[in-house]
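step=encode ok
step=design start
structure_in=
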């Protein structure tokens, strides 16, 4: 018993072995060529199969197919946390919705970045006018055991 297979896109792979992301028994390339699916970025994968983590504004169009990215960082403006400043990583240290590239107070401690000597202080930590944690006795922007040791020496004197 011999069977024949079609290879409509002549890539050497029988059509029944071609990817079918919608499980509709029609290979993806045929869904696209027959107009059953869109392929806005021309990558031979139907757009509706590329929406997971790629449709920040939930409009059923992959983000990489939308052209409104004013700063050219790869995040469309409606989903960009710094619309006018390019920031590929979309970093937002203090989770305030404003990306670090354009946030005037990255750690949201009330001290502007321009004068903050410790711009990445942990959330809800009391700071001085320079942005240092009040427990940062050795002034290295890190409250740790060294600071505790210095604190202890200040009250109890040097360790014998």
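sequence_out=
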């Amino acid at each position: 018993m011999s069977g024949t297979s079609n290879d409509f896109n002549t890539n050497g792979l029988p059509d029944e072995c071609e990817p079918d992301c919608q499980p509709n028994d029609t290979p993806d390339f045929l869904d696209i060529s027959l107009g059953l699916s869109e392929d806005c970025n021309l990558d031979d994968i139907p757009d509706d199969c590329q929406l997971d983590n790629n449709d920040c504004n939930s409009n059923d169009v992959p983000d990489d197919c939308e052209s409104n990215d004013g700063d050219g960082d790869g995040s469309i403006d409606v989903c960009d946390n710094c619309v006018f400043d390019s920031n590929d990583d979309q970093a937002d240290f203090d989770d305030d919705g404003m990306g670090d590239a354009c946030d005037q107070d990255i750690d949201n401690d009330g001290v502007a970045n321009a004068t903050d000597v410790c711009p990445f202080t942990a959330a809800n930590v009391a700071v001085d006018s320079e942005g240092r944690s009040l427990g940062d006795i050795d002034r290295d922007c890190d409250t740790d055991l060294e600071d505790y040791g210095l604190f202890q020496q200040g009250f109890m004197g040097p360790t014998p």
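step=design ok
step=annotate ok -> The chain has two domains: 1-66, 104-160.
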